[in-house]
Amino acid sequence: YKWCKVESTGKEKLSGWAPARYLIPLNPTPYVEGEPRPADAPVVASTGSGKEAGQASAPDQSQAIGSADSAPVAPPDLTARLGGAGPAAESTPKSPEEIGHAAMQDAYLLALAAPDVPLDSAPTPASGPEIPCARYVGQPMERCKVSVVHSADKANITVTWPDGGTRIISFRAGQPAGSDAPGDFRFTREGSLNMIRVGVSERFEITDQLALGN
Q1: In whole angstroms, what is the distance from residue 49 CA to residue 23 CA?
Q2: How many C-beta atoms surround the C-beta of residue 133 within 10 A?
Q3: Are 164 and 154 in contact (CB under 8 A)?
Q4: Cα(95)–Cα(102) distance, rounded to whole angstroms?
C-alpha cells in the first residue's frame, strides 16, 4: 500500500512515514447546532430538556444496534487501534500532533512486525560428487569435483581441479584404462578403491561405485 511522510506541528518536530490508509480522517467533524450538518457528522443532543435529549439520542441508539448486526467496524481512531484509548477518548477529536505521533508509532510497529525476506531465495543446487586428488608434487590430497559419463562397460570421469583445469580418467570393464594426459598412467587397487597416478605428480582416488555407477 501507499506510504506518506508525516510531520508534527508542535514544539518537538517529529517526522516519519506512515501508511496512507491511517491518515484518512476517521473522526467526523462534530456537528454545531444551527449549521448544516455534514452527511457523516454525528447527531449531537441539544441542551434542552431531558425528554428532548432522549428523543435526540434515540436515532443514534437504533443506528448503533444496526451496526452491531453488520460487519465489525474498525476503531474510529488510530490511537484506539493501537490500544491506547478508551471509549471516552474515542469520541474526542485528536489534535494534528497526536494523529501524527500515533501514525508514526503505528508505522514503526508495522516495520518491526514485517517478516524478514531473504535477499536470495533461489535454491542452492546440490553439489556433485567429489574425490581425493592432488595436482602437484608433495601436495596433500584435497577434494576435486567430478562428473561421470557411462557408456556400456566404459566410463569417463572428468576431474575439475580447484585451481582450474580438468583431467579425464577413463575406465574400461571396471578397471582404470588411461587419461587424456600424455604422461605415464598407472594404478593400484585396495579393495574397491582405485589409487591412480598420472605423470609425476597427479594422484586420484576413485571408488568402483563411482566408476561403475552402482
Answers
A1: 39
A2: 23
A3: no
A4: 11
Check residue 47 and give its pLDDT: 43
Q: Of 4, 165, 188, 177, which Cα lies nearest the Cα of 99?
A: 4
pLDDT of 86-140, one tens digit each?
555 555 666 777 777 777 777 777 776 666 655 554 444 456 799 999 999 999 9
Which residues partner with 196 through β-bridges? 187, 204
CA 127 from centre of chain? 25
DSSP class of residue 142 equals E
The three cell numbers of residue 16 are: 516519519
Which residue's entry shows cell 525476506? 117
State how far the Cα of 205 lies from the Cα of 210, in Å rounded to an integer.
Answer: 10
Across 1-10, 85-94, 114-123, 172-181, the highest mean pLDDT is recorded for 172-181
Alpha-carbon separation of residue 8 from 87, 99, 128, 155 (angstroms): 25, 9, 59, 75
Cell of 161: 581441479
Q: Phi-psi region for residue 191, left (φ > 0), alpha (ψ -120 to 50) or beta?
A: left
Number of Cβ within a 10 Å radius of residue 131: 19
pLDDT score recorded for residue 125: 45
| Residue of 67, 40, 43 whose CA lies nearest to 55 | 43
Dihedral, CA of residue 174, residue 180, residue 186 and residue 191, to nearest 10: -30
